[in-house]
Each structure stands twice: as C-alpha cells, then as structure tokens.
Amino acid sequence: MKKTFLFTLSVLGVLVIWFTCANCRAIKRNSNSSPVSHEIWNELLQKHVDKQGWVDYKGFRQDSTKLNQYLSLLESSHPDDQTWSRNEQMAYWINAYNAYTVKLIIRNYPVASIKDIKKGVAFVNSVWDIKWINIGGYTYDLNNIEHNILRPVFKDARIHAAVNCASYSCPQLRAEAFTAEKLDMQLDDAMRTFVNDPIRNQVTADNPKVSEIFKWFGGDFSGSAGSVKAFINKYAAQKMSENASLTYIDYDWRLNEKP
Predict the structure, then answer these.
(1) What is d(CA 37, CA 84) in angstroms, rounded to the nearest whole number?
(2) DSSP-derived 3-state class of residue 166
(3) Torsion sign across C-alpha atoms 206, 210, 212, 213
(4) pTM for this one?
(5) Where would I find the H helices in 155-211?
(6) CA 191, CA 224: separation in Å to the nearest integer?
(7) Rounded to whole angstroms, what are the CA distances from 174 to 91, 117, 165, 197, 222?
(8) pLDDT tens digit sequence for 235-248
(9) Is 108:130 a contact under the CB 8 Å cutoff?
(10) What are the extents of the domains in the chain?
C-alpha cells in the first residue's frame, strides 16, 4: 500500500511538472540573446575532473568564484530557439545541468550523497525539484532542465550519458564542456564510454547487467533504436545475443567524489 501511494505521488508530480512547466519546453523564443562561450566551464572541468570522471569537489569549492562567473554567464543569456542552433541550445542545457549540479554539491559540501541534500519524493519535493536556478528571468529546477527541456525537446537518448547527477552510478562527468561544434561526437563518445564502463554496465553476450537508467528511461532508448537492447548494442564492444535478458544493477547514489 505504501509503495502504491508513493508511486501515485510520483506520477502526480510528473503531471504537475508537465503542465506547470509546459512553457519551459519552448520558452523565451524571442530573448534576443547570443550563444555563450563554455570556455570557463571547460577549464574548470579539465582542472577538477579526472580521466575516470571522478570529481574533486574541494577543488571546485576553491574555484567557486570562477564557477559563479560561469553560472552568471548562463543566467544572462537564455537560449533562443529562433536564433540559436539546435546544437547550441542542447550544449547549453547539458552544461547548465552539470554546472548547477556541481554548484548544488559544493554549496552543501561535505555531503555523502546528493539525495541527502533534500529527502523527498521524486518529481514532487526531492533535491532535483528545488527551484533555485534563475536564467533570463525564469526559475528552474534540475528536473525542469532534464525532463521538460532536454528530453522532450531534443529527443536524443544520448543525453542520458551526458547529464551527471553527482552519483557513483551516474555516467561519468565529462572532463570537457559540451560545445555545438563537437556535440554529436561528444554525445556518441559519452554513451560509448558509459555502456562499456564496467562500473556502470557489464555487457556480455548472454548475461548482460546494465544501469537502471536503461530501465527508468527505456522509452527514450527504444524510441531511438527500436529496443533498449538494440540501443545498447549500437555502442557496446561486446554485443548481446538476441535471447539475452537484461538485469539491472542497483543504483549507487554515493557522491562521485575523487578518492
């Protein structure tokens, strides 16, 4: 009964976000803004994220002035879907999600898990539902960016390997900013890295064990490739057999902090 109640709350939460933030999906068409440079974010990532995607949050705290400078840049220039290219918009929102997630962690650091910052029901009152991101006069939470903008507007399942929720089981935080010029290559590389990362996925021919991301967002992946298995096989070094059944690895929400 309790599980059913919580599930119902979650569904209601999704519907509330969908209707109250329907505007977010096509917002600010005439902002007269120009695409921003992600150079500052790129420098911070190269400095504080290692090759395995582990994050030095203490280092980010020390560079908080520079991080705030980048966030101010994002806040001053809301994407305009009439003048910005699709890739410029997508790169902006992916970088924004990741940068604001890092900001949320260092604002509450030390913390063992992002979920400890605010406990609640997903899509209702969780840490991802805190409305604190102000961009061009609009207020967002992290769920708005991911589920009301990135997923429904751009319809690219590779986004799931690009956004990082500051957790151990998340796809690696890329040690460079996403840019319009390199976006397609970066998204392909991010998904390939994620699928073949033995910490997050263990893809074998007959007994594949994969991230719960492929269960939670199965519709995104099957919509892109016909099925979740077909999507994974597109990127996996070891292909799954036709008869293989997916099992899912329990998600580890510990902070993805550099040891």
Answers:
(1) 13
(2) coil
(3) negative
(4) 0.90
(5) 183-195
(6) 13
(7) 13, 23, 12, 13, 25
(8) 999 999 999 999 99
(9) no
(10) 10-16+33-249
